[in-house]
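WP5 quarterly update. Target: Kinetochore protein mis13. Source organism: Parascedosporium putredinis. Length: 261 aa.
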Amino acid sequence: MRKKAALPHKEVSASEFYKHIESEGLPEPRRMKQLLTWCGERSLSEKPPLGSRNSGAILGARAIQDQLLKDFQSKSQFSNWFDREDAPVVEAIKQPNPRNIEHALKIEQLEERIKRLREQKKMWLSLKKVGPDLEPLFQDTEDASQLPPPDESLLDPNEARMLQALAGNDSSFEKLQAQTTSCMQNAQAKLQFRIDVLADSVHKLERRVTTAGREADQVLERSAARLKERDEREKRASGTRDLPIMEVIRSLSRILPPEDR
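C-alpha cells (predicted):
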C-alpha cells in the first residue's frame, strides 16, 4: 500500500499544491486524486470548542465531509477517468433558427406581392394597347353650327329646358350679356349715390359731435365761474372772506350752545 502524502503547510496556497505533488512515477489520475484530496482536507471546517453553540450540528456535518473524503481516497473511480465507460453520444436535435423562420415568411410574402404586382402590370399593359379604330361621328368637312338640334322629345324635362336656355333665340348670349351689363350699371349708380349719402351723414355727425363738445366746455366753464362768484358773495356777506377756514370753524364752534359742542 502506498504511503499517504502529508498535507502541505498552511502557509502554502491551494493554487500551489500541484508543485508539491511528486511528478515522477505517478500517473495523471493519481496526481489528480492527490490534488483533490489536499483541497478537500484544506476545505474541511474546523472543530468547534466543546460546549459551543450548534457544536453538535457542526461536528455532524464535519463527519459527513470526512467520510466523503475517505470514500474519495479509497475509490479510484472518482478520479480515474481512464476507467470510465464512454457514454453513448446523443444526437442533438437541431432546431431551426428563429431568424431563418422569420426570413422565410418574409420571402414568401414578398414573392406573393411580386406575383400580384406582375399580374397588375400585365393588366395595365393590356389596357394600354390601342383600341379598335372607330369611325368619327362627324366628318371633318361638316360645320358644327349647321347641324340640326337634338330632338326635344327624346330628352328629359330638365334637359329640354337646358336646351331651350342654350339654343333659344330669347336667351342668346348677346342678350344675356346686355341684361347683365345693364343690371350692373344700375347697381353701380345706386351704390355710388348711397356711398355719397353715407359720407355726408358721417361728416355731419362728426361736426355735430365737435360742436356739442365745444358747447359743453363753455357751459362747464361758465358754471364754474358762477359757483366761484356765489362763494365770494357768501364770504363777503358773512365777513369771513379774508379769514382762514380754521378760524371760521372755531368761530362757529363758539356760537353753538354748550350741549351741542
